[in-house]
């Protein structure tokens, strides 16, 4: 079956709240480059409160309910995150803690997920990426396999929202192709 014309819907979660965030810029650039095969909806996490189990009941906190809903309605998730102190930023962990409930029945269960980490350092946030993988595994998300996408020296590659490293961009888009293939493969099984 030819599936080249099929669009898949992916939520692009930025791990940074910074106005001029490289992570958010990367997602916006990829959203343009990957369309129309992949429709990336970029979301940021400023409205998600700190996790509190006392608040995690009906009626849901509205911002959390809407976050869970867009993940549940998506075909897949792309997380673009910086590294903070050798780990993922607290805002990412916090949002995933909310999204992880109900445990083992959450909106992330079996959801295909890809990760891009970036940093000004040449290590490209690889430690945050591995920490994030562990958390996603605990949530029974489906990590899309393939070479890790780690963007080192990100500040030198982005200028005015244009990505200057063609090879790196191709590498990122290939990773998105793998995410799309995973999603389409599932549609085939379910059809
Ligand atoms: C609190 C804090 C801790 C950081 N720790 C690390 C780190 O451990 N490793 C690293 O490579 N970069 C570290 N950085 C640099 C960020 O990863 C880098 O500035 C990143 O590009 C910021 O992402 P953003 O542009 O999406 O906001 C840190 C930055 C901050 C603010």
Architecture overview:
The chain has 191 residues and is α/β, with parallel strands linked by helices. It has one domain (8-190): Flavodoxin domain (Rossmann fold). The protein has helices at residues 22-34, 62-73, 90-99, 126-138, 154-157, 166-190, and strands at 8-14, 38-43, 76-82, 112-118, 142-143, 149-151, 158-159, 162-163. Strands 1, 2, 3, 4, 5 and 6 form a 6-stranded parallel sheet that branches. It has a two-stranded antiparallel sheet with strand order 7-8. The chain starts with 7 loop residues before the first strand and ends with a helix. The site of flavin mononucleotide has 17 residues, from helix 1. Residues 16, 18, 21-23, 82-86, 118-121, 123, 125, 154 line the site of flavin mononucleotide.
Give a short synopsis of this structure.
The protein has 191 residues and is of the alpha/beta class. Helix content is 40%, strand content 19%.
């Amino acid at each position: 079956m030819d599936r080249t014309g099929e669009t898949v819907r992916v939520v692009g979660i930025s791990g940074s709240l910074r106005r001029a965030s490289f992570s958010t810029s990367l997602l916006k650039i990829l959203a343009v480059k990957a369309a129309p095969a992949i429709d990336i909806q970029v979301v940021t996490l400023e409205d998600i409160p700190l996790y509190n189990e006392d608040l995690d009941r009906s009626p849901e906190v509205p911002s959390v309910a809407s976050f869970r809903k867009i993940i549940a309605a998506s075909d897949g998730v792309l997380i673009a995150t910086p590294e903070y102190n050798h780990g993922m930023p607290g805002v990412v962990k916090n949002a995933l803690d909310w999204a992880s409930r109900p445990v083992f029945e959450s909106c992330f269960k079996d959801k295909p997920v890809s990760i891009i980490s970036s940093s000004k350092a040449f290590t490209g946030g690889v430690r945050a990426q591995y920490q994030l993988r562990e958390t996603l595994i605990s949530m029974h998300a489906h990590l899309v396999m393939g070479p890790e996408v780690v963007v080192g020296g990100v500040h030198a590659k982005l200028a005015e929202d244009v990505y200057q490293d063609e090879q790196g961009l191709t590498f990122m888009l290939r990773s998105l192709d793998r995410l799309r293939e995973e999603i389409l493969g599932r549609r085939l099984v379910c059809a």
